[in-house]
Amino acid sequence: MLHILVHRPCLGVSELHTVDEARAAAQDPEAVLWVDFDGRSAESDAILGQVFGFHPLAIEDVYKEGHNPKVEDYGRYLYIVVQALVRDQGWDLADLHTIEVDLFVGKNFVVTHHAGPLPSIEAVRAPTLAAGKNHMARGATFLTHAILDAIVDRFAPLAARFEQEIDALEVRVLKGTDESVLARILELIRSLHHLRRVAIRQRDLLERLARAEFDEIPTEAKPFFRDVHEHFKDFTEALEIMRDDLKSLFNAFVSLASQRMNEVMKVLTIISTIMLPLSFIAGIYGMNFENMPELKWENGYYYTLTFMAFVGLGMLAYFKRRRWL
Questions:
Q1: Parallel, antiparallel, or unpaired: how do β-strands 32-38 and 12-16 relate?
Q2: Are 143 and 217 a contacting pair, CB within 8 Å?
Q3: What CATH fold (topology level) applies to the domain 2-256?
Q4: pLDDT digits 0-9 by tens, 16-27
Q5: Other beta carbons less than 10 A from residue 76's beta carbon
Q6: Which residues pair with 83 in a beta bridge?
Q7: Distances (CA, A) of 31 to 21, 35, 75
Q8: Angle CA 209–215–219, to nearest 5
Q9: In 3D, which of 78, 118, 122 has the Cα closest to residue 101?
Q10: Reduced to 3 states, what is the DSSP secondary structure of residue 45?
Q11: pTM of the entire structure?
């Protein structure tokens, strides 16, 4: 899908439908142009290469997924790559997916590309087109801020969801050492590692924009980009805390499992220790010698069982006195 919006003073926002209209709007110094598209088409190639004349290497990166967040200054425009959540709710936390968003930011234009439909972009385009909240009226920089702000806002609910999941897992760990709990902990740790790799680079990118290192970011826009950076920084710090919590939970699970195993081994060891002298007594009277004392006793069998019970109970009493039980 290709969406072309243009804002002109006194005329507001209107939607264009052809590449030629976009080319004419791009040549208007008073217009602010926003081109958004997903996927690849002949129209998108024409817009990137002919209408705006972006660098071939940047165009090549647009159509390749998997880039880390970054910002490159091409003089006339900035090329920014960020990662956005496709959805922030309804997905399993262990199966989160991010999608690459490419932005070209110039003096009076913004071009965005993503591999599929993206709620963050729609959250900015819909009110802009309806003129309910026109970010384009303030220029390309503030439109860029609105897009980045919408992308960052999608990450915030994840922190609360992770915290709830970790709290629930903590209760389950304390109740028992179910193997499914361990599998879930490892799944969440893996998911957090993925988010953390993305978040650290994206935080650094947003920090560079917040410092207004580039001419495309005017001084008056610094507080807005700084606000976006602070929000994402909070999310990144929350990821670090949750990663530590999951590692602690993993260690607690292993410790509790080891403790329970030690309890089992202790009981088995005590049973074996008690059975050892009883087996010795049974072995003595089980030998096939003719001349053995007590063999002719009428109640020798009962005496032996009583003696064995006395030995076993005596050993139990001794273990309890030593606090081994």
A1: unpaired
A2: no
A3: Beta Polymerase; domain 2 (3.30.460)
A4: 888 888 888 888
A5: 14
A6: 100
A7: 12, 13, 20
A8: 70
A9: 118
A10: helix
A11: 0.78
